[in-house]
Amino acid sequence: MNWTWFHKLGSPKSFYAITSRWLPWLIAAMGAFLVVGVLWALLFIPPDYQQGYTTRILVVHVAVAGTSLAFFPIMAVAGTITLVWRMKLADMVAKNAAPLGAWFSFVTLATGSLWGSVMWGTWWEWTDARLVSMLFQFFLLLSVVALRSAIEDNDKAARACALLSIVGCINVVIIKYSVEWWNVLHQPNSPVGMSNSGANGPEFWLPTLVMIVAVYLFLAVSLILATRNEILQRERKAQWVQDLVASS
Amino acid sequence: MIEAIQFSSFAEFLNMGGYGFNVWSVYSVFFVFVVVNLLAPLRRRKQIMKELKRRNILNENAQDSGQASDQASNSLGENQ
Amino acid sequence: MTVKHTSTSGAFFATLKRDLLIAYKRKNDLLNPFMFFLIVASLFPIAISPDPEQLSSISSGVLWIAALLASLLAMDNLYRSDYEDGSLELLLLSPQPLYFMVLAKNLSHWLVSGLPVVLVSPLIAYMLKLPAESYLPLFLSLLLGTPVLSLLGSIGVALTVGLGSRGLILAVITLPMSVPVLIFGTLAVQEPRFGAELAGYLAILGAMLFFTITLAPLASAAALRISVN
User: Fold this and answer.
1) Where exactly are the structural domains of chain B?
2) Quick one: CA torsion of A130, A135, A140, A144, rounded to 10 degrees?
3) Which of A90, A101, A162, B35 would you call most buried, defined as having the most Cβ atoms within 10 angstroms of its Cβ?
4) Domain spans of chain A?
5) pLDDT tens digit string along C41-50?
6) What is the ipTM of this complex?
7) In terms of CA atoms, which chain C residue is nearest residue A169?
8) Using CA atoms, how far apart are residues A231 and C26, in angstroms rounded to an integer?
9) Is residue C156 a contact partner of residue C173, using CB atoms and an 8 Å limit?
């Protein structure tokens, strides 16, 4: 196995060069998947016999919710790399992943409550374990953002946030299972029609699949763009950045 | 393919079987979310490029006149 | 030349003794979390209702939240004075594994701020009209749960020890982490009333305690090494 590509990707300069080549393709793919997914969902999904056209909400909600679960693993892996190998790039990714993850969690909550407001008749439902654990994932991501902004020294902030991300990643899993347990015991109060089991035919999950790919591509593009900014900023004294600025 | 479209009129499309407000809110939130998280880094990049360019020019001037110009390098903070 | 070696257990007990002694010398710090717990718990009847039935339905939650906040409030002392007078750096430089030193500090912190809260909880429970059969579950769940809160909070304190303004960020980091303990702590008090097995909940809390005893001091130790340097 040849690992040179990995080491290359680890240096900010080659990451910048490699992503310069990838970005146009990623953006094109993201745009295509987004357009296809949104149009498919809005125009072609037939109304569900129970939920009507609200399944169109779920296409977006499920895609964003699923993708938002990737953030703590991403940050924990990046954090481990930061702590063990002191790779600068890993922290640049992690730094931008935290606020983006908070955005994803927030949009998940917003779209979820817009769906719940019609299906459950309420904007917020404590008896839905997924909503509650998503809320705490949101809080935990914000706490990583808060810690980052509280520590002035860049290197110290990087390692502190790396550690908090690893602890947070374990914690999110424990919270998820605790909330589920807690939820089962409070189930008697739950509103009818909680599950979204109605929406499971191929006419529903095919556009959802397209949308999930689209949202993952969007995550990649947004994170890469932000990481490239971070590289320019932190490596501004490097010759290659100076040349890049001069030639732009 | 055209037959598979679920709506016969634009008004029906907007109405979404009575769930228009929720469906369109979700898609607007999603739209704003995607656009903001793509445009913000792009705008930031422009800002950084401008800042770095300004500093390069200042540094060149400083080298020419033999003066140090540290103000410029401080204006671009590490923690944004 | 002979060098006197201190064993790990010797270092553990020396740290524990030192911290307890310091806590004893500062009796105010000893009393504050305890007072805080009492005051917060007595605010609820005033804010919500003096009605015994309403009180008894919220009392387990109130007690747990008050214990959580009291533990959080006391957290700030955990490493700060040691950080300020430099003894924390000496601790980091010592040849004994930092894990046991951190564990000793957490244990002394819990003995000083957590245990009094646990001991006084039946009294507050009585004032808040907790049903009589819930006293034992409350006491046992707090006994198992508050050390977990101390151990988890220690990570947050260790991460923020060198910072100027800590108060709020510490809460923002620590409170979401306490959710699982809060869930099982309150369930252990509430569920046996409806016929659930208390032992099951205590087993889960105990498992959480052992899990955090093994892992949290490692994270705290790593966090201290990051913060102090």
Assistant:
1) 9-64
2) 120
3) A101
4) 26-186+205-247
5) 888 888 888 8
6) 0.86
7) C177
8) 49
9) yes
